[in-house]
Design a protein that fits this description.
single chain; 360 residues; alpha/beta; seven-stranded mixed beta sheet; 12 helices; 17 strands; globular; binds nicotinamide-adenine-dinucleotide
């Protein structure tokens, strides 16, 4: 019997993405897999059930989808769904493995694979890297949202009615999302500056034609990633950033730390010192906090001094079709690594797969 893949309708009402899209389903079906799609799963991402049927999937109710050998979803399914899984099945998605881990570790015999545990530096894992694919979309969107909220031009405009100065944009955190935000703001014509605690980011920022803001804090940790700053380093960083921030029209922050409270890079006094009409987009704003004092998840707030604060931790959801296309290709790459010769094969010696395993 072919291995079956079940595509769940997302549990969270605000989640617009879907784990597999019809074009990717067509490839999986062509490769001999059975794809079962929960009715309405792709609706919010713009993929109607009829497109999945045309791609060769079977549409089903939730119960039948949950009985597939490999169940895929973008975020973690609700507790009732995870409890319905039986030994021998696999669950695959961006499962927030750090959040209430016992809900996942309790699933004895189920192969729980969370994409937020993927060893991203291994080159074979790059096609599976959903954190990067979604961060890239978030960075692009952050620049677009900032430009839309900003009441003036991003590019310099020379018109008969005079010349408008280009907007000045500062991007804090120059990882995947930050570099994409920098590139997008540059394409929109803004004058862009990037910043990161990793000194290696300087070259990446400047190669995009942006300036680099230097502080006295360097913090490279394991695998070249940023490490958590000490309280003293954080205070130094905030003070040095504060002095620079009030000169910018737009600030985009991207320092998101899975499972931990994001570092506060912009405090309330700094926001209060910003010019009326400035815009701040906080890509780290989530339930644990954000990079900017005062931002709220998924909310747009105008401060007393006329600064627009946009909490955008889940901003990739605003581009559900593109985000789902990329996510689906990541999922298909994992499926290709775990379905070998038509059998579900979770190889504990496969470094990429074993690191993603949440269950023992
Ligand atoms: P992330 O989402 O964890 O963080 C975003 C950025 O914020 C990072 O650049 C980080 O250095 C920065 N940051 C963290 N704490 C900070 C602080 N206190 N102040 C200022 N900046 C802070 O990171 P990410 O985008 O997922 O990736 C981070 C790095 O890993 C990047 O260099 C990226 O290119 C690299 N990466 C490599 C691979 C690969 O090798 N295939 C894949 C993904 C990412």
């Amino acid at each position: 019997m072919p291995v079956s893949i079940g595509v769940l309708r997302e549990a969270v009402e605000d989640e617009t993405r879907v784990a597999l899209t019809p074009p990717v389903v067509a490839v999986l079906v062509r490769d001999g897999l059975d794809v079962i799609v929960e009715k309405g799963a792709g609706e919010r991402a713009g993929f109607p059930d009829s497109d999945y049927s045309a791609a060769g999937a079977t549409l089903a109710a939730r119960k039948a989808t949950l009985a597939a050998r490999v169940v895929v979803s973008v975020g973690r399914p609700d507790a009732a769904a995870t409890k319905a899984l039986k030994p021998g099945q696999a669950l695959l998605g961006l499962l927030d493995a750090w959040r209430e881990p016992q809900e996942l570790t309790a699933l004895e015999g189920v192969h729980v694979l969370s994409l937020d545990r993927l060893p991203r530096q291994i080159s074979r894992a790059q096609t599976m890297d959903a954190l990067s694919s979604q961060a890239s979309i978030a960075g692009y969107r952050a620049a677009i949202v900032a430009a839309e909220a900003y009441g003036r031009y991003f590019p310099m405009m020379v018109t008969a009615a005079g010349t408008a100065k280009p907007a000045t944009v500062l991007v804090l955190g120059a990882g995947v999302a930050g570099l994409q935000a920098i590139a997008t703001a540059r394409r929109l014509g803004a004058r862009v500056t990037g910043y990161d605690v990793r000194p290696a980011a300087r070259e990446e920022v400047t190669s995009l034609g942006a300036a680099f803001l230097a502080t006295s804090v360097d913090a490279v940790g394991e695998g070249g990633y940023a490490r958590e700053l000490t309280a003293e380093e954080s205070a130094t960083q905030r003070a040095e950033l504060s002095a620079a921030i009030s000169g910018f029209d737009v600030v985009i922050t991207t320092a998101k730390v899975p499972g931990r409270r994001p570092p506060e890079l912009v405090d309330a006094e700094t926001v209060a010192a910003m010019r009326q009409g400035s815009v701040v987009v906080d890509l780290a704003a989530g339930p644990l906090g954000g990079n900017v004092a005062g931002t709220r998840p998924d909310a747009r707030i105008e401060t007393a001094n006329g600064v627009t604060l946009i909490g955008a931790g889940e901003i990739a959801r605003e581009m559900a079709p593109a985000a789902s296309d990329a996510f689906a290709r990541n999922i298909a790459a994992v499926i290709a690594a775990i379905v070998i010769d038509g059998e579900l094969t979770i190889d504990p010696n496969d470094e990429v797969i074993s690191k993603m395993l949440v269950t023992p």
